Amino acid sequence: MNELLLVDRLRRISGKGGGVIRGIGDDCAVFRPKAAEDLLLKIDQLIEGVHFPASMLPEVVGERALARALSDIAAAGGDPRCCLVALAVPRTKADRWILLFFGGLLRLAERTGTVLAGGDLAHDDKVHCSVMVVGAVKRGKALTRAGARPGDHLYVSGRLGKPWDQRIEPRLALGRKLAGKATACIDLSDGLALDLHRLCKESRVAAQVESVPMVQGVSLERALQGGEDYELLFTMPPRLKPPAGTTRIGTIVRGNAGTVWFEGQKLEPRGYDHFA
Amino acid sequence: MNELLLVDRLRRISGKGGGVIRGIGDDCAVFRPKAAEDLLLKIDQLIEGVHFPASMLPEVVGERALARALSDIAAAGGDPRCCLVALAVPRTKADRWILLFFGGLLRLAERTGTVLAGGDLAHDDKVHCSVMVVGAVKRGKALTRAGARPGDHLYVSGRLGKPWDQRIEPRLALGRKLAGKATACIDLSDGLALDLHRLCKESRVAAQVESVPMVQGVSLERALQGGEDYELLFTMPPRLKPPAGTTRIGTIVRGNAGTVWFEGQKLEPRGYDHFA
User: Fold this and answer.
1) Do A120 and A25 share a structural domain?
2) Minimal-distance CA residue of chain B relative to A123
């Protein structure tokens, strides 16, 4: 199949709506924002041999590529609107692989109200995918990493230390509940130690962690420094009740920006860092 | 340098404004659209060994990666607002390479009013870059490939058949002039034969091409089927005067959607097609 035919096929299976006026098949997608909304923009890449093994099923790769970017939209308290996908695949991978990849991606897209609005296809030695997601949030209500204040309680959703290849369920419903309530929020993609350090650094505060909810059987190190949990880590003033399914793990305190204390010891900002 | 330091550095050298409320350093960038504007979204990838040779200077790669996506914003008649960049580089490339890449990209970004709003860094065997650009255009005024009508005159900017490694100058000023005037527009990234076919197919019309302005010394085949020209190809009703620097090359006619005639012969939709 050549690119023209493949694009035609994708166009037929991709959705419509969500502000997307013109989608696949033009130089640009055209998106009409609603009044009084801010947009959230995120780009994330997924590389064969780096972020996933060559043996991973194409539909799982597709789903995962979108899920990772959606997790960041959740962390900002937003609703996903549309996505654009740049995909490079080896010539040895048949069109079937590409269509299965988009099949997996589009199932999650449909479930979360994300329209596939455009993309770019190329051949390369191995699979390399970049997903860009546009989300929306009420004007001025986007959650960021900056905003945690000393005295805020620190919470996490779910349990930490999940197997890295487990299905990612972006915490979009939780993120929406937190918008306008949480003082700061980040998604746990690189591990609690590193991501909490980032949140504290942006907020110019320190944090004290007492205990974390862990997946049964994993080591404390895995729960603190393993990546790919895709849960939300957030802070709230003590007077607010946290949503169900979240656990308080500590408190925001004054101190050197970015310092994290765990059981009386400094927790080093180690985790999944591609550039360490 | 680790990722935290590199991101800090990029944050300091990246611009502000253009609707970007929160840029590099958070889970998502936050962008505030202006009232009565539609947004243009484009993702484009640039791969070492596929789109450029390993020997290309990092600042040229960076500039080129952004220029290609900006060319699509130009074709839609828009103003670029911000961009997000996913970059994978080999471990052998020092941080210096990354900073030079962003140096080249940011020079073009500044010149065109494009704010670097976010990104994602990873290591891979070779350089792989995806650039996502957000542009803006007056509501309902985005140029698309669909809209050319029989009788419209067909124009192209510049001359065709440029060396593929020549600097790309996205035709943003021309695109802005065409918004609301041209009936259809596309940028010439894959060659006149293929891109005109695409425009005609989307507009459900055919085209007759009489002659094309060529770079001195190149073959007709190169001018018609060579890619990487990044000029604008557009259609206008005969009563409108085309902007300076453009040449009329033919006429839109009734016929099978997508058919292109050149000197009485059918021009096959051949050009740069990664999936051919």
Assistant:
1) yes
2) B274
pTM: 0.91
Whether residue A202 sits in one domain with residue A124 = no
| Cβ of residue B110 closer than 8 Å to a chain A Cβ | no
The domain boundary residue, chosen from B138, B172, B202 = B138
* Whole-complex ipTM: 0.91
Q: Which positions ≥6 away from B216 have C-beta within 8 Å?
A: none
CATH of the domain at A72: 3.30.1330.10
How far off is chain A from B184, nearest CA to CA, in Å? 11
- Which residue range(s) make up the domain with A89? 3-138
CB-based contacts of A274, cutoff 8 Å, min separation 6: A50, B3, B121, B122, B123
Query: Do B134 and B183 share a domain, yes or no?
Result: no
Give the count of Cβ contacts less than 8 A between chain A and B.
Answer: 220
Please write the tens of the pLDDT for every residue from B203-260: 999 999 999 999 999 999 889 988 888 999 999 999 999 999 999 999 999 999 999 9
pLDDT at B15 over 70: no
| Residue of A117, A120, A275 lying closest to B121 (CB–CB) | A275
Where among A71, A106, A138 does a domain terminate?
A138
B27 near A CB under 8 A: yes
In 3-state terms, what secondary structure has residue A194? helix
**Number of domains composing chain B:** 2
